Amino acid sequence: xxxxxxxxxxxxxxxxxxxxxxxxxxxxxxxxxxxxxxxxxxxxxxxxxxxxxxxxxxxxxxxxxxxxxxxxxxxxxxxxxxxxxxxxxxxxxxxxxxxxxxxxxxxxxxxxxxxxxxxxxxxxxxxxxxxxxxxxxxxxxxxxxxxxxxxxxxxxxxxxxxxxxxxxxxxxxxxxxxxxxxxxxxxxxxxxxxxxxxxxxxxxxxxxxxxxxxxxxxxxxxxxxxxxxxxxxxxxxxxxxxxxxxxxxxxxxxxxxxxxxxxxxxxxxxxxxxxxxxxxxxxxxxxxxxxxxxx
Length: 295
Description:
Layout: E1 2-6, E2 31-35, E3 38-39, E4 44-52, E5 55-59, E6 65-69, E7 79-82, E8 85-92, E9 96-104, E10 110-116, E11 119-126, E12 128-129, E13 137-145, E14 151-159, E15 171-177, E16 181-182, E17 186-187, E18 191-197, E19 202-210, E20 213-214, E21 218-222, H1 234-267
Parallel strand pairs: 3-12
Antiparallel strand pairs: 1-6, 2-4, 4-9, 5-6, 5-10, 7-8, 8-9, 10-11, 13-14, 14-18, 15-17, 15-19, 16-18, 19-20, 19-21
């Protein structure tokens, strides 16, 4: 196994420690890839390069060239560690050589590799750092429970930003003013439960966070109106009042009717005494007048 480091800047001193890991594999063409394509700051990124032949050359920033070569019979485990770059030979046979280069992500750094014998350009790639995400959108609130007299349970809901910065969103930071009780301020989903006082004007601020930083805050204002009492409600209280009034009138009329019937029953005849209400008979005695004439 041979390792050589070349520099295009005179006077640059390079220290090299060599470690190579070799495995048997089969490959029919040169390949090059970068993972991840968009990286978080200070995250390790890995380039993989496969070149035909037994020798591979990495091109690093500042014109540094690192060449690795070997034969299949070489079973020594060696790699190259140069500054922030770790270069490993992961596969070697009579047809091709495969190597990986791992480094800490730095925006705009371009790395490339090529086969030396035969000479071929395999590929190159530029490290791209993730951007901070966009703002959350479509914030709204939904009252879950307003059965108590003093507070209501409210669900705050929102949609993730259209731009995630190229990497996964880690969490949302939620704050509310004036201070209200809510489940947690670091939310990994797109909803939060809040305990809100009635008739208070709340301002909610939500920030999206990924590995590259935070978005600007999206604000949302809401107020929860207290539940309406039943008595003044036209659809309930007034109807109850009308029902009670009609019931009172009904029972009053019923009472009068019963009274009339009772009085009528007292004064009317019964089958047992059907003479109680007959008209009194007026007896007229006929008196025979006798007129005598005196002679």
